[in-house]
Design goal:
This protein is α/β, with parallel strands linked by helices and 456 residues long. It has 15 helices and 17 strands. The chain folds into two domains: 171 residues, Rossmann fold (3-Layer(aba) Sandwich), CATH 3.40.50; 187 residues, Dihydrodipicolinate Reductase, domain 2 (2-Layer Sandwich), CATH 3.30.360. A hairpin with a 4-residue loop joins strand 14 and strand 15. The relative contact order is 0.15. It holds the Pfam family GFO_IDH_MocA_C2.
Length: 456
């Protein structure tokens, strides 16, 4: 830990001791946040800039000034520095090492959009450095990381938003869906199906030289040391011209070493809305059963036996026993979206539509005034960053907080563990551990590679 971060944490702990249970704020958090005038705008930095990193940065220029950007790929870093300069009229400072961002006293908050295996380490160190945090979904690589983040948020008093923008930015379809459920428009909920799409397996991906612009050692970070693999075919469009098949950049989602496949990618969106509607934000399932699934490579004792192909599930049907006898199905089949079924009706919602008789009935029997605002906990924000800054200003957690996100994501992590071990898992949502299965519980955490442990 750097001397400046040690000092920040020491002062925080001394402040807590002096203030008792009062929330201790760092000087940076005491500014008047908002977008009314330039000197009232918070100062941000983004760590991890490919694809979603630029997306969340570009959506935030109207609310914040970006003083720094960090990325381990010099091409990505340079391109985004230039784009940021054009947007705000001033170039941000550029760093390969995110720790230089955390050492700066002028930065109020960091936006983290690295691959998933880096999220927790950077977020924890950022909070101890006095920064509020916006971190992309899925927040964690393991369930243990989620518990750690909850502990540090509580200990430091930092504001922390998870980038599940579906809670704020996909118009009001999902909030309307939750309101329909909570207002009893489908009676007692019996079943909810989350369609999150499957994926295709990869061919064998050979070892090739690391691109000159990429610090692959630092990209791996806490993950195991492995060779860089890629095929020469390029992904057009969203992939930004990187290899279509690789164990790096956009394809990181397809490897358990760095992410959790579709279960934690799209699952982090639709399972989130489902658990929110069910009122299960502070609890969890009792059982997770892999009904049928396809892993693209052979597994032994929960680990892939080869390292030259994608290893996350390509197809799946997972049954989850939720509170109040609600059955949740997470599936790669059918339309992407969420189907709610109850004793008095059913409806379907996704980012393009909300359909079904309970929705049609709204024409003659609309939701009560304020029903959607009640779901959201206040005025609905049309921008996820705006909701984050509102939380920073009020020193309260935003709509997508670590606690609700972790409870939802535990379902997705458990689904992956169940498939890797090929068995049903019984879950204790109070202790947050798998019941009677030591091997399965060993998958709730992972060892960080030496030299990349979390600095606390």
């Amino acid at each position: 830990m750097s001397m400046s971060r040690q000092t920040s944490r020491r002062r925080f702990l001394q402040g807590v001791a002096a203030a008792g249970t009062a929330t201790m704020l760092y000087p940076a958090a005491n500014r008047a946040f908002g977008a009314e005038s330039p000197n009232e705008r918070p100062v941000f930095a983004t760590i991890g800039l490919r694809n979603q990193g630029w997306t969340i940065t570009s959506k935030s220029f109207r609310f914040a000034d970006f003083a720094a950007l960090a990325d381990v790929d010099s091409n990505v870093l340079g391109a985004n520095v230039e784009k940021t300069k054009k947007q705000q009229g001033k170039a941000p400072d550029a760093y390969k090492d995110y720790r230089k961002v955390l050492d700066r006293k002028d930065i109020d908050a960091v936006m983290i959009a690295t691959p998933d295996h880096w999220h927790t380490k950077i977020a924890v160190e950022a909070m101890y450095a006095g920064k509020d945090v916006y971190c992309e979904k899925p927040l964690t690589l393991t369930i243990a990381e989620g518990k750690l983040l909850e502990k540090v948020v509580k200990e430091t008093g930092r504001v922390f938003q998870v980038g599940t923008m579906q809670r704020s930015e996909c118009d009001e379809r999902f909030l309307q869906a939750i309101a329909l459920v909570k207002q009893g428009r489908i009676g007692t909920v019996k079943k909810v199906t989350c369609g999150i799409n499957g994926m295709v397996a990869s061919p064998v991906i050979p070892v090739v030289p690391v691109p000159e612009e990429l610090d692959y050692e630092f990209w791996l970070g806490p993950a195991p040391k492995v060779d860089y693999r890629a095929l020469p075919e390029l992904r057009e469009g969203y992939g930004g011209g990187v290899p279509l098949y690789s164990n790096c950049h956009y394809s990181f989602r397809n490897w358990h070493e760095y992410s959790g496949g579709k279960l934690t990618d799209w699952g982090a969106h639709h399972v989130d809305i489902a658990t929110w509607a069910l009122g299960a934000d502070d609890t969890g399932p009792s059982k997770v059963t892999p009904l049928d699934y396809t892993l693209p490579v052979e597994y032994k004792n929960g680990f892939p036996v080869v390292d030259d192909q994608y290893n996350v599930a390509t197809q799946f049907n997972i049954q989850v026993a939720m509170p109040n006898d609600v059955e949740m199905i997470i599936t790669s089949e059918g339309d992407n979206g969420i189907l709610f079924e109850g004793t008095a009706g059913r409806f379907f919602v996704n980012r393009g539509k909300i359909v079904g008789k309970p929705v049609e009935d709204l024409e003659s029997n609309p939701l009560p005034e304020g029903a959607i605002e009640e779901v959201y906990g206040g005025k609905v924000s049309a921008n996820h960053t705006a909701n984050f800054i509102e939380g920073m200003k009020a020193r309260k957690q935003p709509i997508s907080d670590v606690w609700s996100h972790n409870r939802m994501l535990e379902i997705c992590h458990l689904s992956n563990i169940a498939m890797r071990l090929d068995r049903e898992l019984n879950w204790d949502p109070t202790k947050r551990e798998i019941i009677g299965d030591a091997e399965a519980n060993s998958f709730l955490s992972r060892e960080y590679r030496k030299g990349y442990e979390i600095n606390m």
